[in-house]
Specification:
495 residues, alpha/beta, five-stranded mixed sheet, two-stranded antiparallel ribbon, 21 helices, 7 strands, globular
Length: 495
């Protein structure tokens, strides 16, 4: 109930439905702009690219015939005088109306940044332009948005990934192909904080390219403004879910969204929602060897480090240089910010429950002075703080639980399991209001590795990796090699 109330406070559901109904014809296959992640009050959205004239005429004509001569996409369209009509052709009027509704939806969701993953300016089939994109809109209707052209190989390229025994290192896309005409284009203001030489993008292998694009998306959603983000490719069911899923899992691993979900639960959510609900055709892709779905979850091993963490930048903003340790200890609850607040950057505060208190572990350890004596003095000086006392009790209760091989700083997955009865679970929705819980780099790595391991186990049982050609040792050796790859035990060229 709380989640529904919060979402309705950011958008009016009835208004959103109306805008979606009117704008759906503007994009390929009717795949409208859809908000899928709510992060820090910003909508992270997905869609297909803009529809071309052929699809637009076909769909509007079909809808007009089967709707009894009416089409909601045209309702309440701005009146165009006869004089204007004489100066503008029918194509321009149609695009103005349909794309105008698309722009209204984007503005309603406060989307400013549009990231286009297409390697083409327009998708061409049989010599005809079947799709378009914002970056080549002749009337520049999307000029008020910040457009990013970040070309990324389509699902066909991932057959090469499978054929190379699922090895992405050293796999470079051929940018010299005739149909590739969309260069990388990113405003300088969005790249200054990233130590990346974007001019070298055509020399990146699949791992480096995916990593750098993900860093860019994380940097955008962590910017100081309140603007949302749209990510799209052509149809929105291969490359788009790849990056939406990686974004969701990365933010979850940082404890910033879906904080109450266990690794198996977040895996179920992103597979079912980000991939299958939005139309990823797994059976078709597998039949062609285009294993972009497998690549996504196997790629988690490449984003475990802190350089992909959204927490790092938040922490820098949250602690001004003038803050002392004593001031941090004595901060009141209202000054620290609620852990359920989307706009709270300084999220060291504790909820008045042992479950929430457990989330203080990493930040507390990180902020303590170096040295045993200094740490002891710090703990003593803060002993009277209600938050410190609460945290201490939570740690004592955890120490009584079986925890073989675990240190003082527990992984967030075990922590959430331990305290699952002590706080409200609101993690069942993709648009979950984040209950921030900052985690350490080691926790982030372990959480992502748990998701990856769970995926590999499930994938091998239900689908299985394509058998590799048997080596000199024969068929048995080939099967063993496949097993080693499946569980991630191989060396430098592991899955």
């Amino acid at each position: 109930m709380f989640l529904i109330s919060w979402f309705e406070s950011t958008v009016h559901v009835g208004k959103l439905q109306d805008l979606i109904n009117r704008s759906k014809m503007a994009r390929c296959r009717g795949r409208f702009v859809c908000p899928v992640i709510l992060y820090k009050g910003k909508h992270i959205c997905r869609s297909a690219t803009l529809a071309g004239w052929g699809e637009l005429y076909g769909r509007t004509g079909y809808n007009y015939i089967f709707s009894g001569g009416s089409d909601d996409a045209w309702a309440d369209a701005e009146d165009i005088s006869e004089e204007d009509s004489a100066l503008r052709n029918a194509d321009s009027q149609l695009f103005d109306k349909v794309r105008g509704h698309d722009i209204k939806l984007l503005r309603y969701l406060s989307v400013r940044y549009i990231c286009d993953l297409m390697v083409e300016n327009k998708k061409v089939k049989f010599g005809l332009n079947v799709t378009s994109s914002e970056k080549v809109d002749k009337a520049q209707r999307y000029a008020d948005f910040t457009l990013l052209s970040i070309p990324y190989p389509g699902c066909e390229f991932f057959k090469e990934y499978k054929d190379r025994d699922y090895t992405a290192e050293g796999l470079i896309f051929n940018w010299k192909q005739d149909y590739v005409d969309a260069p990388l284009s990113i405003p300088v203001s969005l790249t200054q904080s990233l130590n990346i030489d974007w001019s070298e993008y055509q020399s990146w292998d699949l791992v480096q390219q995916t990593q750098n694009y993900l860093k860019l998306l994380i940097s955008i959603i962590n910017s100081d403004d309140d603007s949302g983000l749209l990510v799209h490719c052509i149809s929105g069911w291969d490359r788009t879910p790849l990056f939406i899923s990686l974004l969701r899992l990365s933010l979850w691993a940082d404890g910033l969204i879906h904080a109450s979900l266990e690794p198996s639960e977040i895996l179920y959510l992103t597979v079912a929602y980000d991939w299958f609900l939005f139309g990823h055709m797994l059976v078709d892709r597998l039949s062609k060897g285009e294993e972009i779905f497998f690549f996504c979850f196997n790629f988690l091993k490449h984003i475990t480090s802190e350089e992909f963490s959204a927490v790092k930048s938040q922490r820098r903003k949250s602690l001004p240089p003038s803050f002392t340790l004593e001031e941090i200890c004595m901060l009141k609850q209202r000054d620290r910010g609620s852990t359920t607040s989307l706009s709270s950057d300084f999220s060291l505060g504790m909820e008045s429950s042992p479950g929430a208190a457990g989330s203080f572990t990493y930040e507390a350890v990180e902020l303590m002075p170096a040295g045993a004596q200094a740490q002891a003095a710090w703990r003593k000086s803060c002993a009277s703080s209600p938050q410190a006392v609460l945290w201490s009790r939570a740690q004592q209760s955890e120490d009584r639980l079986p925890s073989a091989g675990m240190g003082e700083v527990k992984s967030s997955s075990s922590s959430s399991s331990t305290h699952s009865d002590n706080f409200l679970r609101i993690g069942s929705s993709p648009l979950e209001v984040p209950r921030s819980r900052l985690v350490s780099a080691s926790d982030r790595e372990s959480r992502l590795e748990e998701v990856r391991s769970a995926f590999l186990a499930s994938y091998s049982q239900t689908i299985g990796l394509k058998a590799v050609p048997p080596g000199p040792s024969g068929a048995i050796g080939g099967l063993l090699e496949q097993f080693v790859r499946g569980v991630g035990l191989r060396g430098s060229s592991t899955l």
